[in-house]
Design brief:
The complex is a heterodimer of chains A (222) and B (464). With 222 residues, chain A is mainly α. Chain A contains 9 helices and 2 strands. Chain A has one domain. Chain A has helices spanning 12-27, 33-42, 46-75, 80-100, 114-127, 130-146, 163-192, 197-200, 204-221, and strands at 6-7, 10-11. Chain A has a two-stranded antiparallel sheet with strand order 1-2. Chain A is globular and about 55 Å long. Chain B has helices at 14-17, 126-133, 208-211, 217-221, 311-314, 405-411, and strands at residues 25-32, 41-46, 57-62, 74-75, 95-99, 106-110, 119-124, 135-144, 147-155, 163-167, 174-177, 191-194, 199-202, 228-233, 238-244, 249-257, 265-273, 279-287, 290-299, 302-303, 318-319, 323-328, 334-339, 344-349, 357-363, 388-390, 396-400, 419-425, 431-440, 444-451. In chain B, the strands form 8 sheets. Chain B has a 4-stranded antiparallel beta sheet with strand order 3-2-1-30, with no helix packed on it. In chain B, a hairpin with a 4-residue loop joins β23 and β24 (344-349). The longest helix of chain B has 8 residues, at 126-133. In chain B, 58% of the residues are buried. The chains are: A mainly alpha (222), B mainly beta (464). Chain A binds chain B through residues 29-30, 34-35, 37-39, 41-42, 44, 102, 104-112, 120, 194-195, 197-203, 205-206, and chain B through 2-6, 8, 10-13, 16, 82-91, 145-147, 169-170, 195-198, 234-235, 261-262, 462-464.
Amino acid sequence: MNLTGTFAGLGTTAMLVVLLLGAFHGINPGMGWLFAVALGMQERSGAAVGRSLVPIALGHAMAIGAVVLLALLLGTVIPLTYIKIAVALILLGFGVYCLFRQRHPRGGGMRVGFGDLTAWSFFMASAHGAGFMVLPVLLGSFVKTTHSAHAASGMEILSLVSPMAAIMATVVHTMGYLAVTGLIAWVVYRKLGLALLRKAWINLHLVWAVALVLSAAFTLLT
Amino acid sequence: MPLWTPDPTFYPSPKMAMEAPPEKVAFVAMLNVGNGSRKDALGVVDTDPGSVSYGQVVGKVDMPQGDNELHHFGWNACSSCLCPYAPHPHMERRYLIVPGISSSRIHIIDTKPDAKRPKIVRVIEPGEFTRRTGYTAPHTIHCGPDGIYGSALGSADGGGPGGVFVMDPESFDILGKWEVYRGPQNLAYDFWWHLGYDTMVTSEWGTPNMVKDGVNPEILLKGGYGHALHVWDLRRRRHLQALDLGSEQQMVLELRPVHDPRQSYGFVGVVVSLKDLSASIWVWSQENGAWSVKKIIEIPAEPADPDTLPPLLQGFKAVPPLITDINLSLDDRFLYVSCWGTGEFRQYDVSDPFNSKLTGSVHLGGIVRKAAHPKQPKVPLNGGPQMVEVSRDGRRVYFTNSLYSPWDKQFYPEGVRSWMVKLNAAPQGGLEVDPDFFVEFGDMRGHQVRLEGGDASSDSYCYS
């Protein structure tokens, strides 16, 4: 197994895609920055915006990490093809569900501490299938890096992959996410104000649903 | 159908909502007490001064069954859809949720594509409502960040407790009773919230059995109607604190919390004091998590010749103001107060809530006063200022004169002839009756008013 040009078994391209997916998740107002801005306004404090981004990013990272780690661990005992089919079905399910039903998260609120915000971010990311959206590119990457060691039968077992790969992917993804969500939160809080929401808040839910369905296709085709 | 960009009637903050365009129509609950079918209706009133039908009922949809007693109603979605913890900004403000307080029936009315021709799209029957919530007599409706909330006066047998229920904002299915822990709360009426503090406030009138035959003097003189507010944890759905105004303060009705989510105070009206028949306005407020309530305005009863009074009041030789509705402008500056008994409508500057200033007063109707409208200066009016609604920009104030048919009969036994008026409010305070806007409802009675696109009591906000 040749690890040159890889990060704990992941290719450079895969890492870049994982980073960009983080950025895509960061744009979504429903996934972090808007909550940070609201909490800043409520406390009349720019510091509160920054402070709330920490648990929001942590919760997002946990949602991604949990799914990625689980998939890679399962990958050590289940053939990759089965995992890919399962992931594709889950993504398709999430996507179709998002297209036809817009769920309204209940039980949330504005008086939230570190734990509440972490949990909120975890559930928002999980409920949108954010972790599963990252999986196809990782699984695709493993096919390529494991090619040299195994026949491309689709029945490979990811026995050589360390949990480091999962952690690495999660960290890179979260960096992309935090950079974008933090930048938008800061610009909106300091400069633009919330009036832009009225025009600029396009229905990312639909974009998101399409992205999930495309990810499902990508999983099966790579 | 989800929208591509947010519904243009959703505003992040109350300040932004004040820049909304003027309403072209108003929706009015119309009660049918007299004629045959007794089917109430939702009426549409033209509020566009440039229109030829300005100040007329231009549309109407009848309820499918009779004896509903339509009272208060609200939107399926509003600015709270923008709240950051449960955002779903691409919903449409489109459906009115219209409960019947006597029937426990809930009507879902579609106001699009033509607001002047609303259509009933779903009716939730009383059996289903009570089976799912345990409640009867649904009353106030508010669109919340995570669903549609409603209050109800009582339980299945017409006694207590009344409380709050939740509806799915898309399917309109009744999801159930809201409370996880009710504490000492038994009576219910109005509810609203401080979204910035995850706090709900509820008020008290009486159970259906206590109110359905009108004001019961025996219950009233014992101080048996509601006289407290309840503060709740909105997230955990638990009772936190009861705020007793004192048992002489009878019937604590409309709640108007400030719209600014950073603030944690609000106004509530008390219909009558047993001590001297006065009516009052109280402010609730919070400091370090502890809530308290304080009287800020008292309006005295006016002495009157018993011959001019209905039997219920003759012994008192006075006409009580009866504050039955209040409303607060979106900038939280002006409080409007309806005195249904004396026929007076007041405007207070409440920029400093504990130091309010009377800035405007208009007389229309009244048990004794019977003040006329400038459009028909020789025609005495009955009923009095009652359900009030304020435009988002704060410049126009509308109200109707009918209250609740059993009360109408007691206080205006000759029969309320129903009307709706519009006042113009000056930006720095002061009220003037619009002489061209005088809606008459014939043998129907106008009750709550909702303005197209939202108004001062329809939307709540998570940003300031």
